[in-house]
Design a protein that fits this description.
Elements lengths: L9 E4 L9 H16 L3 E6 L9 H13 L6 E5 L4 H13 L3 E4 L3 H13 L22 E4 L6 E6 L3 E6 L7 E3 L7 H11 L4 E5 L6 H10 L6 E5 L2 E2 L15 H6 L4 H9 L13 H7 L10 E2 L2 H13 L3 H11 L13 H11 L6 H8 L11 H7 L2 H15 L6 H15 L3 H13 L7 H8 L1 H16 L2 H10 L6
Parallel strand pairs: 1-2, 2-3, 9-10, 11-12
Antiparallel strand pairs: 4-5, 5-8, 6-7
Helix pairs in contact: 1-9, 5-6, 8-10, 11-12, 11-13, 15-16, 15-19, 17-18, 17-19
Bound molecules: glutamic acid.
């Protein structure tokens, strides 16, 4: 269904602050955001905090942090439902006066026993309507129930799922205001969507059963109906609803695991939406291409491998200077920084050199650490396998050749390595691996000449000499130091 290409679109993101911003919520926020931007409309942020027991300030802060990390700004709000209680009461009483709602003083016990009776008879456990025609004393404790119209077919065109119809006979006379005057979820949502002039309600399909409950309330309040779009579920790889069992579901956990927000946004948008077979989208492209016509109705499956792949792509293509502050956040505080770590240009070189082989910022930080910190930890396995007495001899030869260099450049290093290789009848790889372990402490790193250039002459030579010493220690000492120093693992 084509949407108007003007600024009349008003959408909302309406989280309940009962936890962090999870991936499903972030996708709902993103789709609303993109639709608002695409049609130059308005995104309203509404915090649905009427569940006082479960709503917390920390969750509100966590949701706002998540949105700001993903760079999903809104145009109006945040509006808090707890600040609008008078308005819900006003409209609840308006419905009461019009006979479209009624007071109910049924006790919990009565409701419970009716419920059980209905269940025993195999009937849906609905309110039996006892108070529909009674006049309940307004000064006694009571709730206000909506008088759901009888025998009404509720039909709406879901922008994603097509035409859906429900029979009002299956709906309860739902409570709209509780005994303490608090609105219930379905009532507050409708009052807000009306007051905030929402034109399109785009939310997860866990709300699809609420829509037929909400439509008669819109009608009773004589308000135009918004369009509805229910986004398909997100499944875990085992095709059950995505949950903590499948790994992290909180947006901020992905930041802590070293993901870039652009990668997560790019990943989330493809959970349900597609644009031809394009996988990578800039923000501008998303705003320009996004529409609901290309949101599918079948559930999408969360694929952590693909998210990692996207993250690696965004890391590789981010300029070093943008990565440096993020790299600093991921690194443990440097104890004794290398002299070159004082130079901002060194950090940029390190980030640029290593970003292409890192899937996350955490990995980038691990690769970068030996080029920023004075001492580096040697992986015990690498020490045992690579820093053997035989390789100690190789390292000694390399150290001698490197010391004689008048210049520390890619070309001079390459020449030194070929001379040693020729003399010892060893290939470059055979020379490079012990040097790599000596300088970085790890068996995986960028090319050996880049490593030596990044570490610099002094640091490289000192580390190679230290490795020569270590390679001559008997293996039992190594075993001991492995057992005694678990922290050698980084
Ligand atoms: N507050 C609801 C939630 O967080 C969303 C309500 C809506 O979008 O209508 O699930």
């Amino acid at each position: 269904m084509p949407l108007p290409k003007d600024s009349s679109i008003r959408v909302r993101f309406a989280p309940s602050p009962t936890g962090h911003l999870h991936l499903g919520g972030a996708r709902t926020a993103l789709f609303n955001f993109l639709l608002a931007r695409h049609y130059k409309g308005t995104l309203v942020l509404r915090i649905e905090d009427t569940d006082r027991e479960r709503s917390t300030q920390e969750s509100i802060a966590a949701i706002l942090d998540g949105l700001s990390w993903l760079d999903l700004g809104w145009d109006e709000g945040p509006f808090y439902q707890t600040k609008r209680l008078d308005r819900y009461r006003e409209l609840g009483h308006h419905l009461l006066e019009k006979g479209l709602a009624y007071r109910c003083d049924c006790t919990q016990e009565r409701l419970e026993s009716r419920r059980e009776e209905a269940l025993k008879k195999g009937l849906p456990p609905r309110y039996d309507g006892r108070c529909r025609e009674r006049s309940v004393d307004p000064s006694s404790p009571h709730v206000i129930r909506f008088r759901t119209p009888e025998n009404l077919a509720i039909v709406f065109d879901d922008l994603i799922r097509g035409t859906l119809s429900f029979d009002s006979g299956v709906l309860d006379d739902l409570i709209i205001l509780r005994t303490d005057g608090m609105p219930t979820y379905n009532f507050a949502v409708v009052v807000d969507d009306i007051d905030m002039k929402i034109t399109h309600v785009i939310r997860g399909d866990d709300h699809i059963n609420n829509t037929p409950r909400q439509i008669p309330i819109f009608q009773a309040l004589e308000a135009p109906l918004p369009d509805f779009a229910h986004l398909p579920m997100i499944y875990g790889p085992d095709r059950t609803r995505l949950s903590k069992r499948h790994g992290a579901t909180s947006v901020m956990a992905y930041r802590d695991m070293g993901f870039l927000p652009q990668a997560l946004v790019n990943y989330l948008v493809r959970l349900g939406w597609s644009h031809k077979d394009q996988e990578i989208f800039s923000r501008e492209e998303l705003v320009s291409y996004f529409d609901l016509d290309h949101v599918g109705s079948s559930p999408s499956v969360f694929n952590p491998e693909k998210l990692l792949w996207l993250n690696a792509h965004y890391l590789k293509n981010s300029p070093g200077e943008e990565l440096v502050p993020l790299l600093r956040e991921q690194l443990p505080p440097l104890t004794v920084p290398l002299p070159q770590s004082q130079d901002p240009a060194h950090w940029i070189r390190v980030a640029d050199e290593l970003k292409g082989r890192s899937k996350t910022l955490v990995e980038l930080a691990q690769f970068a650490h030996p080029f920023l910190e004075h001492s580096r930890t040697i992986d015990p396995e690498a020490r045992k396998k690579i820093l053997t007495p035989e390789n100690g001899g190789v390292l000694e030869q390399i150290s001698l050749a490197l010391r004689s260099l008048s210049q520390w450049t890619g070309e001079s290093l390459r020449n030194a390595f070929s001379q040693v290789g020729e003399a010892l009848h060893l290939k470059l790889g055979e020379l490079a691996q012990p040097v790599r372990v000596a300088v970085t402490g790890r068996t995986v790193s960028p090319g050996i000449f880049e490593v030596l250039l990044l570490a610099g002459r002094e640091v490289s030579l000192a580390r190679i000499d230290e490795a020569v010493r270590l390679s001559q220690e008997p293996v039992s000492d190594i075993q001991e130091s492995r057992n005694g120093k678990e922290d050698l693992h980084d």
